[in-house]
Design brief:
Blueprint lengths: L4 E5 L7 H16 L10 E7 L4 E5 L12 H11 L5 E8 L10 H13 L3
Antiparallel strand pairs: 1-4, 2-3, 2-4
Amino acid sequence: MLANVVFFNHVGLILCADKVKELISKCLQARDMAYCPYSRFPVGAAILTTDGAVITGCNVENASYGLTVCAERTAIQRAVVEGYRQFTAIAVTCDIKDRFVGPCGACRQVLMEVRHTYLL
């Protein structure tokens, strides 16, 4: 189950095993909700707030590919809308089991900005 989940944790923070399992489980559940009729490439993300809340996101595609929103950005945007501003970890998964697939450039940019602004 863990082979296809990427887990990012801010350096120096230790998370209990139960919280990591919850984050991964919710990440996998979010992937199942993905709307990806064009690529058939479901992605799920789960972000952990400093309050212990887990906020999820999935990719939502559009026929105009530039309007597609990735799972990582969906999770971060949902967290911000729900009032969370400080995060400790994020888990991301797709359905490729034999190799790592990292976040796209746009998601990396958002994660970097969030890291400098909100990530503890």
